[in-house]
Amino acid sequence: MDKKKLSERDVCTKLITVAIEKAGWNIKKQVREEVSFTDGRVIVQGSLLTRGKRKRADYILYYKNNVPIAIIEAKDNKKPVGSGMQQAIEYSEILQLPFVFTSNGDSFVFHDKTNEQVREQEISLDSFPSPEDLWIKYLNHKGLEDPEKRKIVEQEYHLDESGMSPRYYQANAVNRTVEAIAKGQDRYQPRIQRSEIRGKVGQVDHASASGTIGIFC
């Protein structure tokens, strides 16, 4: 295979997705591709209103439903393997994701916000971390490695019957609240700007007796 002739989409399909799946990620349940997560900026020109380009992630990886933990920025093989890292880090800050990857189909550059000693390193396609590997790193970084705390943060969401999914900032608020509950921080209040809210913000209904967490949007 001549990688230089592959388009960015081909690099994703033939190389990156294959590497992710080999690492143990469930492509249907844990991987989303080409995810637009913000509306474009509103541009005013006289009486004309237009929107700029949306922010879009090539891949977002989820440990479980509504719990994203990593982002991947893909480039075609003519570009360096680390190309796009700054943009990916910017997106990860918006989405509150600790693990950032870039790839051109030759290897990955792994930017790990939880590792102070080795913040960034290049890894082979065959060395992409499994969901459990990243989740353990995440729990340790958050101080949630205790079995009882982990049990709380790993409870599944109870979704209402509307079929609607929470926006990224709503899911972030719910996830941070659940983590605070796991740590015993009963008075934790998530920070969400009113200007960001459309409709009802996701709420947490934590019932330790039933072992469920409800989310309402």
**What would the CATH topology of the largest domain be?**
tt1808, chain A
What's the shape? globular
Strand proportion, as a percent range, falls in: 25-35%
Count of domain modules:
2
Distance between the termini: 47 Å
Comma- or semicolon-separated keywords:
217 residues, alpha+beta, tt1808, chain A, six-stranded mixed β-sheet, three-stranded mixed β-sheet, 11 strands, disordered C terminus
Would you kindly provide a written description of the structure presented here, covering whatever features stand out?
It comes from Echinicola pacifica. This is Type I restriction enzyme R protein N-terminal domain-containing protein. InterPro entries: HSDR_N (IPR029464). Pfam families: HSDR_N_2 (PF13588). This protein is of the alpha+beta class and 217 residues long. 28% of the residues lie in helices and 29% in strands. Helix 4 packs antiparallel against helix 5 (168-182). It folds into two domains: 3-142, tt1808, chain A (Alpha-Beta Complex); 147-216, no CATH class. The protein has five helices and eleven strands, in the order αβββββαβββααβαββ. The strands form three sheets. It has a six-stranded mixed sheet, sandwiched between helices.
What topology does this entry show?
Layout: H1 8-22, E1 31-38, E2 42-45, E3 48-51, E4 55-64, E5 67-74, H2 85-95, E6 99-103, E7 107-112, E8 120-124, H3 131-142, H4 147-153, E9 157-159, H5 168-182, E10 203-207, E11 212-216
Parallel strand pairs: 5-6, 9-11
Antiparallel strand pairs: 1-4, 2-3, 4-5, 6-7, 7-8, 10-11
Helix pairs in contact: 4-5
